[in-house]
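Mods, move this if it's the wrong board.
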Amino acid sequence: MTCVYLLFDILAAMITWTALYMYRKYVGESADLQQIMHSLHVDSKFWLGLFLYPVCWIVFHAFFGYYNKIYRKSRLDELVTTFGVTLMGCLLFFFVFILDDIVTTPNDYVRYLLFLFFSQFLLTYVPRLCITSNVNNRIHSGKIGFNTILVGNDEQALKAYETVLGQTPRSGHFFVGYVRVKEQPSDAMSGRLPCVGDLSDISQVIEKQHVEEIVVALHNGQRKYIQQVLALVRRNHNLTVSLVPQEHDVLMGSVRTSSVLDEPLISITPEYLPAWQRYLKRICDILLSLLAILLLSPVYVFLAIGVKRSSPGPIFYKQERIGYLGKPFKIIKFRSMFANAERNGPMLSSENDSRITPFGKFMRQYRLDETPQFFNVLRGDMSLVGPRPERQFYIDQIMERAPYYQLLLGVKPGITSWGQVRFGYAENVDEMLERLRWDILYIENMSILMDVKILIYTVMIILKHEGK
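Not the wrong board. Structure tokens:
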């Protein structure tokens, strides 16, 4: 289905570019149809634009996340989004491609811009409206749906199941089974849906049943289990979770729905950042890392010589850490300890750690040993700002006391973080847990602006030699 949207967006851009070219020739040069058609054949700029203009629009729409979750689009939201993105795009393309035209009067510029906007908007939105309407109709008629599991097995779960199943038009939930909660002694769902496992088995259930949506129907006293479900969602961005609201959720204004006809549920989005901010964050990571590596090149040479002269061993130290979605990667540092410092097993460093070389203490004082991690950022293992990555050895210990740590695995780890700014390096698991609350606070408030603030404070801490 994504290919269908892409195809019509490309056609819309090509037709708009051709129509605008002909309109500019007609208005700006008073050319007749024969002259315009001749110009179309011989003008190399037209053919170059016919290729580049659609490519730019596809990138622009993708940057704002239009091609994400194509089966869950609202026609009203699509109208607003298409209008806004088209307006911004047309202003950009107008000043880049068209403003150098020879015009008879300044009003010609206004005509070109209006022609460009309305042509691009109508040719883009009308096919989208038709495609989205067709998809929504197929969902509402039950021809298209999403594999769904129900979390809960008491009377409330049964009521939620019957309500969602019986609503007209249909919501697109294809229930493949329910997950049993042990604290619910009565199994009202027995015989209505197959039991696919216990809550502790939910990861395997999601993978085996190809689950796309989860409906959680739990009483207030059992909502501690929601944390377990949310952690899975944060690590799997293809999942959508909805909570059956309690009375106090409605009174507190927690229930938000974009559909007038669907059963109101509390929808939980697994995405911490909108699509355009995710792409912008990655672009900033790449550009700033390249700039940092370029500026730090002389420093790298000095540090490499210092590390080599300080003690026998390699210049760089590579250590396995756990990154985005639980995938391991090798973090790169300048070696600040004597070789084989962890021959007796994993150990966290402390302020007066005898394993740290004299030159290593100097590097750590200004966090220069961390600077090679800009290469980790370029490789995509890390971001400039994000929770500090840990080793599996310590993650296992943290998870025993704070299972919600796995929420951090839903974002890329960073060179610096809110926890690093507010707390600094952790010397034991207790300090890791204390720093964890700042990292959790960060991922719940992620934004480009927040990253900028953290980077500024990080630089200030390094320059003032503060923190730990």
